[in-house]
Design a protein that fits this description.
Blueprint (H helix, E strand, L loop, with lengths): L1 H12 L2 H23 L8 H13 L3 H19 L2 H21 L13 H21 L7 H12 L3 H20 L1 H23 L4 E7 L3 H12 L3 E7 L6 E10 L3 H11 L4 E7 L14
Antiparallel strand pairs: 1-3, 1-4, 2-3
Length: 295
């Protein structure tokens, strides 16, 4: 247990300054995107920020003031119902985000960002929001205060954290629908879906590889061709049949996306009866895979 804790400390401390700098700049872009695009266009994409836009419309309360008030309330609830370490982690990101929103909010009246089309606005906003949040998550920090609500719901309803977060955002988006109408809600859902896809790409990586399991009577020949002529690494595994309880070898191969068609054609030419199971591969540690973020 002591050794595990020391390893966790090393992991958390690894490249801490670099991760924080990436987190800081990602929060800046999320806050700017919020103040100059989401708020003026009444786009409620969930979270406490989205709820702040609804409250601002109904009461006139400043979005930054609402964010600070909601952060205080959620922090108290979190300290009562959740792990303190998790709450403090969320609090740090929330306060940083709230502060940048408050500092840039006065500029909203003097700076207006205009787009030639609504589609361009939606794509641009989705890109900024998705990339910024993806980098924030990848750096190991948390921005949103609504995660506290999702965590409390998850703890007491036994729903997975992801499901709790989705239902929390759906409720906030529904409030946006009531206040701002159908069209703005469709725009908001578009941004949420596209930005979440971008977040997945930032965290998991682009699906530029395929992971293939090969079952064949000619595994030795296939392995030799892949290693020496195609120059793709292979790993031999032992599989166990469920029906007859027999064991037989399998090949595990990671294939670059642009080589997959030729790879499959090659295997089928060598053994027309070969079985190939293929799935998308988001991330490969080592080998030819290159990272674009230093953590």
């Amino acid at each position: 247990m002591v050794k595990q804790k020391s390893i966790l400390k090393l992991v958390n401390a690894d490249k801490l300054l670099t991760r924080f700098l990436f987190f800081f700049f990602s929060v800046v872009f999320v806050a700017l995107n919020y103040n100059f695009i989401l708020v003026p266009n009444k786009l409620v994409i969930g979270g406490m920020s989205g709820l702040g836009i609804v409250i601002n419309k109904l009461t006139g309360l400043s979005t930054s003031v609402f964010l600070f008030i909601s952060t205080g309330i959620l922090t108290v609830l979190g300290l009562i119902f959740l792990n303190k370490k998790m709450v403090l982690k969320i609090l740090f990101g929330s306060l940083l985000y709230n502060t940048i929103v408050a500092l840039t909010e006065p500029l909203r009246t003097s700076i207006s960002i205009q787009f030639e089309s609504t589609l361009l606005l939606l794509i641009f906003t989705s890109f900024i929001y998705g990339v910024s949040n993806g980098i924030a998550y990848r750096s190991g920090f948390i921005i949103g205060g609504s995660d506290t609500i999702a965590a409390i719901i998850s703890k007491y309803t036994k729903l997975p954290m992801g499901s709790s977060s989705i239902w929390t955002n759906i409720f906030i988006i529904f409030l946006g629908f009531i206040v701002f109408g159908f069209t703005q809600t469709i725009y908001s859902v578009f941004i949420l879906l596209l930005s979440n896809k971008i977040v997945d790409i930032i965290i998991l990586g682009v699906k530029d590889s395929k992971m293939c399991y090969i079952k064949s009577s000619k595994l030795n020949e296939i392995s030799d061709i892949l290693l020496n002529e195609v120059h793709i690494g292979v790993t031999e595994l032992v599989g166990k049949g469920g029906l007859f309880n027999n064991t037989e070898p399998l090949l595990l191969v990671i294939v670059p996306f642009d080589q997959y068609y030729g790879f499959k054609h090659l295997i089928k030419n060598m053994d027309p009866k070969a079985s190939i199971i293929t799935s998308d591969c988001h991330d490969v540690s080592g080998g030819y895979k290159k990272k674009f973020l230093p953590f």
